[in-house]
Specification:
Blueprint lengths: L2 E9 L5 E9 L16 E6 L5 H7 L13 E6 L2 E6 L5 E7 L2 E8 L8 E5 L4 E5 L6 E6 L3 E2 L8 E7 L3 E7 L5 E5 L5 E3 L5 E6 L12 E10 L6 E11 L1
């Protein structure tokens, strides 16, 4: 017997909460609650760096761009719901009127997805994102082994096919002694359709002396100045004088 207080509470993502309570006598079989919540909508914005103007123009105005080379966009998802937002002509994007909650976001630059960013958006918040794109390239080294009597090449080509990264290379002996190093300025651009850059090692060391026959290791480092990522590729080079 007596009177009881019954409280119903709803809690949502992003810190949303609504509760209501009623006084009810003992023996009440059922009653209804009406819950309401007020909140401000959030904003997610930022830049997608390293985009060509043609890719940005192709993406603008589309409701759902596709992950192919003709488009560039930002993808924001919450559970199974996915939105793709074309970027502006300067590479910027802005998404307004987002409900508070947990989201995942990534960018497509026309050839690759960025790393995914997770954010919890509170009511009325404005979040600025910057995306990091993983470095990806095809690396070739030839002629390998380099046999002086069997090739007309002036040296060993170390080439990568991919985006316009900042490249550097270091070549070592089997014991780890640095033989030759080269920075971005010593690489040349290779033509389309498989564009990239290459360094031609003339089989000399940093002192401009000829190296002897043997096995050497190289480390090619590629840096994405726009996306912030970097990656190293390693391989062996055989030299036969």
């Amino acid at each position: 017997m007596g009177t009881y207080t019954v409280r119903a509470t709803w809690t949502g993502a992003g810190g949303l909460e609504s509760s209501a309570e009623k006084q009810t006598p003992n023996g009440t079989a059922a009653f209804n609650f009406t819950l309401g919540v007020n909140f401000d909508l959030g904003v997610v914005q930022g830049m997608v760096s390293g985009l060509s103007a043609s890719k940005i123009r192709s993406a603008s105005g589309l409701i759902m761009p596709q992950s192919v080379s003709e488009y560039a966009f930002v993808e924001i998802s919450a559970g199974r719901k996915v939105m793709r937002i074309p970027v502006a002509s300067d590479g910027s994007f802005r998404v307004s009127n987002l409900l508070p909650g947990r989201y995942s976001a990534r960018a497509w630059d026309g050839s690759r997805y960025s790393n995914s960013e997770t954010l919890v958006l509170s009511g009325g918040a404005s979040v600025t994102l910057s995306f990091t794109f993983p470095v990806s390239a095809e690396v070739y080294c030839w002629p390998n082994p380099f046999a002086a009597l069997k090739t007309s090449e002036a040296g060993v080509h170390i080439r990568y096919i991919g985006a316009g990264y900042n490249a550097s290379v270091k070549i070592y002996t089997l014991t780890g002694e640095l033989v030759r190093s080269a920075k971005e300025g010593e690489f040349t651009v290779t033509p389309a359709p498989k564009s990239g850059k290459e360094f031609v090692w003339d089989l000399r060391n940093n002192s401009r002396q000829d190296v002897s026959s043997g096995v050497y290791f190289y480390t090619l480092e590629l840096r994405d100045s726009a996306g912030g990522g970097k990656k190293q590729y390693r391989g062996k080079i055989g030299v036969v004088r």
